[in-house]
Amino acid sequence: MYEYIKGNVELIGPEYVVIENNGIGYQILTPNPFVFSKIRGKETIIYTYQHVREDVIALYGFEKTEEKMLFKKLISVSGIGPKGALAILAFGEPVHVIRAIENEDEKFLTKFPGVGKKTARQMILDLKGKLTDIAPLDNYDLFASGDDINLQKPTEETHLEEALLALAALGYSDRELKKITPKLEGKDLTTDQYIKQALQLLIT
Known about the structure:
The chain is of the alpha+beta class. The chain has helices spanning 65-74, 82-91, 94-102, 106-109, 117-127, 140-146, 156-169, 174-184, 191-202; strands spanning 4-12, 16-21, 24-29, 43-52, 57-62. Helix 1 (65-74) crosses helix 2 (82-91), helix 7 runs antiparallel to helix 8 and helix 8 (174-184) packs across helix 9 (191-202). It starts with a strand and ends with a helix.
């Protein structure tokens, strides 16, 4: 029903963001709410999917269209519901998930929360060869790097610094961040990937 919602990110929770549009605040479940911390209070677009069940109506939202497209593919697989698909996207980039499905890499797929061997095999059976609308089957490397293109070519240190600033804005103390920083240094990751890894360290 809703293709996307354009508005200001007003609230960031552990599992959702609230985006205000024309005086209405929409609670949107998203794989990694913390990626929106750098634009809190600013206007943005969140690509949405409305999930309707007998007992619940929920909005799921994504920073990128390919995340939304892959989410819709994942929930079509027997054994994967919206929460499971959201968890997969929270811990993996779409291109990595697609590559694993096309390569029948069950070992990689079972690393995601809630995905056992049976579910991994079902993902491969149901989705292999059916993800070309998200990325061409013969062009994964280009797809993987396309979203990371930046004319300024941010350095590893810049990505890590941006991630730490985002986490500080969410309320994490300098003491907490200094404790985990050595475990993050020396990795060639995007800002979002640093945030994901940092959150895993902070909650363990």
